[in-house]
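Weekly puzzle thread! Below is a chain. First person to post its structure in C-alpha cell form gets bragging rights.
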Amino acid sequence: MVKPIKYDKSKKAEILNRSILDTTAVEAAVNDIIREVRERGDEALKEYTIKFDGAKVECLAVTKDEFEEAERAVSEDYKDILRRSAANIEEFHKAQLKDGFEIKKDGCVLGQKVTPLESAGLYVPGGKAAYPSTVLMNAIPAKIAGVKRIVMVTPPLKDGKIKPEVLVAAKIAGITEVYKVGGAQSVAALAYGTQTIEKVNKITGPGNIYVQTAKKLVFGVCGIEMIAGPSEILIIADESAVPEYVAADLLSQAEHDQLATAVLITDCAKLAEEVSVVLEKRLEKLARRDIARVSIDNNCKIIVTDNINEAAELSDELAPEHLELAVKEPFKLLKIIRNAGSVFLGNNTPEPVGDYYAGTNHTLPTSGTAKFASALGVNDFVKSTQYVYYTREKLEKSSKDIIEFAMSEGLTAHAESVAVRTEK
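Winning reply:
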C-alpha cells in the first residue's frame, strides 16, 4: 500500500527525484543495429524482425490486399469510433496552423516563410500492444501541415501481419506507405534508407527504450520530435475530488509500464488516505495488475501539501507528462500551471479522454521535459525560413554599424563584404 507522506521542503529533492536508467548497454546494442541496417539494408531488417518479433516477413511493405483484409476484419462500429476521434484530432490541430510574416520598413524587407517537411516517418508500437490511437495522433498533424510523404513503420505480429485496427487507422489518416518492421532497426531504416524504405526528414512517435535510443542516435541525420520516457501522471486534488476517480486515474498510467509514474498531490489528508485504500483494492482487479503492481510499488507517491498553490508549485517542478486538476476551480488553477505536457480539467476529464478522443495530442514530453518541450503538433512537421532584403540606400545607412560590429569580433572579411559595396 502507498502511504501518504507530508510534504517537507527540506526533502524536496528526494520527492522530485526520478530514477535514471543506465542506457550504456542499450546504446551499444542500438549502435550495432544501426550499423547493420546501414550496411545490409533490407536483409538486416528481415533478420532483426525474426529475432525480435518472431515473424518472417518476405515483403516489408504492407500490400493493397493486406489493407483490404484489415478493412474486412474490423467492425463498422469500431471504424466509426476511429473516424470520430480523427475528426476531433483534425479540428484541434487545424487551429495550430501558422502563416509566415513580412515586415517592410525604411528600404528593407524582413520575413519568415513556413514550409512543410517533405517527408516524415511515424513509429507506431506494434505486436500485441498495438495502438491505433498513435497512428491518428502522429499522422493527422503531419497531413494538416502539408507533409507530402508520410511513412509508417510498426512491428508485425508473429504471423507477419499488422494488427487490422492499426491498418484501418492508417487508412483513415490517409497513410498508404506502411512497413512491417519495428524496433531500433526501423528507426535506422527511416534515417538512412534501405533498398525498400526511402529515408525521411523527420521521425516521430513513441516506443520502448531501444526505439527512443535509436531516435537519439540518428538525430542530426534526420529530425526527431522528442525522446519519450516512461508514461507518467500527476493529479492535483482537493476535497472535492472523488477517491475512486483519482485511484482509477493513477492506475490508468501504472498499467502502461513497470517504469510508469503515478503521483497524487493534495491538500486534503483525508482524501490522501482514502485514495491509498481504494488504489490497493482497484489494483487487485486489473487485468494488467502485475505490471501496475511494480509501477505503484516503485514509482507511486501520495503527497499532502499545506495548500493547493503549494501543490501547483511542486507539480511545476515535476513537469509531468499528464496533469489532472481534480479541484473545485480547475480553470483558475490552470492559470498558474507552467509545466505540463497536457492538462485535464475537473473531475469528469480523465486522462484517457485525451489519449483517444478529445482531439488534443497524446504524444507528450516526459521525464520533466515539459519544462522546455511541447506536445506533438503541426509545428513538428513544418520548418521556418527567414529572409531579408536591403536596398542600396538602406545598406549605406546601416554600413557603419555593421562594419564596426564585425570588426569588434575580429571578422574583417565580414566587415569588408559590406565595405566593398558602400565605400566610395
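Puzzle host: Confirmed. Bonus trivia for everyone else. The chain has a mean pLDDT of 96.
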